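Supplementary Methods S3. Input chains for the assembly prediction are listed below.
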Amino acid sequence: SQQGEEDPQALSIQEGENATMNCSYKTSINNLQWYRQNSGRGLVHLILIRSNEREKHSGRLRVTLDTSKKSSSLLITASRAADTASYFCATEGKTSYDKVIFGPGTSLSVIP
Amino acid sequence: NAGVTQTPKFQVLKTGQSMTLQCAQDMNHNSMYWYRQDPGMGLRLIYYSASEGTTDKGEVPNGYNVSRLNKREFSLRLESAAPSQTSVYFCASSIRTYSNTGELFFGEGSRLTVL
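Predicted structure tokens for the full assembly:
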């Protein structure tokens, strides 16, 4: 299997705090993506980081990638109640073009 | 600006019945995907299509068939539905650059219940 685990499975924080979610994978990748899913909706793309990149930022989001450890983290700074959602990482394997595999996700609750 | 459109949004089947989930995208994307999502779980890839005329198995292809009818449309067929296929099905599309697939754009999902 290409994909590993996301950690933690569930996270509950107060509004204004930072939220960190981790993703591990098993095989060499071309890129890793993070998605958000609000309850009952489709997934929305957040950030894509390529295998030769180590860090990317987008607004309050910061993604890191450590290919030596086969892991990535998503940091959401100054969280808001509207950030409450499930977050998933997804990988495209280096030898399996277009085959995008998702992890089990982290459920984030931001308490106002 | 429709993006990815899935039909139907809801469907109830009896065990053994067949049905086809339809998906169409208007973004001129070359890659299309079908995933299923079960309660409290992530998405599992059923089939994907890197281009018109090609399809490949994903993580959980058993019990499903797909057709990439043209660049816009990618359908998923359940020939003989089973209760284990009760799930929410998501279609997605992406555009491939030289060496990487890009972000996936998702439809709103099709909720299927098999009794």
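The mean pLDDT of chain B is 93. The first strand of chain B starts at residue 4 and ends at 7.
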